[in-house]
Amino acid sequence: MRVENHSRAHVTREGVRKVAVTLFAERGYRATSMRDIAEALGMRAPSLYNHVRSKEALLVEIMYSAMDRALADLHAAISSTDDVAEQLRHATESLVLQFLFYPREVAVNNNEIRSLNEPHRSKIIAKRDEYGQGFRDLIERGCSLGLFHVESPRLASYAILEMGNGAKVWFRKGGLYSEVEVARQYSEFALRIVGVTDFAKCVQHAPIEATGDGTRG
Amino acid sequence: MRVENHSRAHVTREGVRKVAVTLFAERGYRATSMRDIAEALGMRAPSLYNHVRSKEALLVEIMYSAMDRALADLHAAISSTDDVAEQLRHATESLVLQFLFYPREVAVNNNEIRSLNEPHRSKIIAKRDEYGQGFRDLIERGCSLGLFHVESPRLASYAILEMGNGAKVWFRKGGLYSEVEVARQYSEFALRIVGVTDFAKCVQHAPIEATGDGTRG
DNA sequence: CCTACCGATCGGTAGG
DNA sequence: CCTACCGATCGGTAGG
Q1: How far apart are CA B68 and CA B123, in angstroms?
Q2: At residue B210, what are phi and psi to the nearest 5 degrees?
Q3: Residue A175 vs residues A36, A170, A171, A172, B152: alpha-carbon distances, Å
Q4: Who contacts B185 (Cβ-Cβ below 8 Å, separation ≥6)?
Q5: Are the C-beta atoms of residues A70 and A49 closer than 8 Å to each other?
Q6: Nearest in space to A84 (alpha carbons), one of A46, A139, A5
Q7: Looking at CA atoms only, how far is residue A204 from chain B in angstroms?
Q8: CA–C1' span, A4 to D7, in Å?
């Protein structure tokens, strides 16, 4: 990464973080040196320490803020309705949109937990577990209401959580589908995984074109 | 990682690779030094070079062999039947079992592609793309036969591919489900994602206990 | 299989 | 914001 246009006064704590998350995501935390970050900002490595305390502090800040945003968005999605199927739909859309709108932050959070030292490592893991538990609770409630049908809600929750990563790998800005459309399709997959299908379509069991929109709930 | 029992004569090329894949998976390639690998084998770093050419050669060997095994297993799974739904089921089981039986090899393949130099990097990416294309071809065929119902086969294939990673994150040896049982449940998820559902169950639309086995095809 | 050692690079500090 | 520099660690080699 190279930032072309920067005058010295414009380098801020947030600017350093932005460059850092990009390089951490592209090359990995260990493979990114403070000199790399400085170079991308057009300065020398020691100058970075006017903005950040340490390399690890940069990583910690990136991971906490991304995780807290994901959790807040998830809780907002679940609170938006009382229908458990709609809650799962909104939760999955929120999940996928984290991947699509903040791919670098999510990549760092997924790959660099092992680069953290305690106590941050445990705290980030706790937040990640809380995120997953939100999905598991939804699925268990849907099952107990007789609306969802899965053998193991826990297993289904992990399937849905990891499925979101596929969206990131696949997504290309300006491609066939927008972020919101991809999120919608993945939320349809999530509902299918827990056994919620379009009843009418299931009964008639008619072929539907792969390129059509007949799969929408 | 520490290997407790090793006499010098027992250290082989394969022994070095086995230790390396474990440490690469646990800590990452960059965070693992040749001294770490040597220590786990009870020797000094320079002695490793009697068994391997370089650190990167170790990584390359690990990634090629894991990728080739996954591809061979996938093709065997697809060749085992002519029914496209059964092909997808077997392919997904094969995918999940890679994660469950070779979690370290899969982790290294997923995380360390960026640690490779050319031309190996491009070759591994080509193999990974071939693997994904196998799933996409299956789904496209199922759709054109009117058996599968998805808006975008490509998007569905990525959802299924990434879903497999959830199995690895979740799976604990000796837990509630065996590897084969987890693979079976994930293959059921894959069929649901592409719109293949148990017709009778869908019609009656009856609640089914989450802990039951009513979701089996 | 070992010790001794190479040049390169790392995160970070001193001092201005 | 910079230059100069620190001790630590890296992959790998020499030589036995």
Answers
A1: 11
A2: -65, -30
A3: 31, 10, 8, 5, 13
A4: A151, A152, A155, B177, B215
A5: no
A6: A139
A7: 10
A8: 34
Question: Looking at beta carbons, which residues of chain B come within 8 Å of A195?
Answer: 192, 197, 208, 215
Tokens 């469950």 belong to residue:
B100
Is the shortest CB-to-strand distance from A172 to strand D under 7 Å? no
Strand C close to B44 by CB, under 7 A: yes
Lookup: tokens for A40: 């991308």
In whole angstroms, give the CA distance from residue A215 to residue B20. Answer: 46
- As a rounded value in angstroms, the CA-to-C1' distance for A45 and D4 is 13
Q: Dmax of chain B from CA atoms?
A: 68
Q: Which are the contacts of B59, defined by CB distance < 8 A and separation ≥ 6? A: B20, B24, B29, B108, B112, B115, B116
Looking at the predicted structure, is the pLDDT value of residue A216 above 80?
A: no
In the chain, the amino acid numbered B94 is: S
Q: What stretches of B112-178 show up as alpha helix (H) in DSSP?
A: 120-144, 153-170
Chain D nucleotides near the protein (CB, 7 A) = 1-4, 9-15
pLDDT tens, position by position, B150-198: 999 999 999 999 998 888 877 888 888 999 999 999 999 999 999 998 6
Helix (H) or strand (E) run with residue B145 in it: none
Residue B25: enclosing H or E segment and its boundaries? helix B13-27
Report the Cα A153 to chain-centroid distance in Å: 21
Provide the whole-model pTM: 0.88
Q: Could you tell me how many residues make up chain B? A: 217
Token output for A113: 């937990």
For residue B93, the one-letter residue type is E
CB pair distance less than 8 Å for A155 and B144:
no
The 10s digit of each residue's pLDDT in B101-160 is 999 999 999 999 999 999 999 999 999 999 999 999 999 999 999 999 999 999 999 999
Determine whether the distance from the CB of A50 to the nearest atom of strand D is below 7 Å.
yes
Q: Does A125 lie at the interface with B, CB-CB under 8 angstroms?
A: no
Question: How far is it, in rounded angstroms, from Cα A48 to Cα A58?
Answer: 11
Amino acid present at A97: L
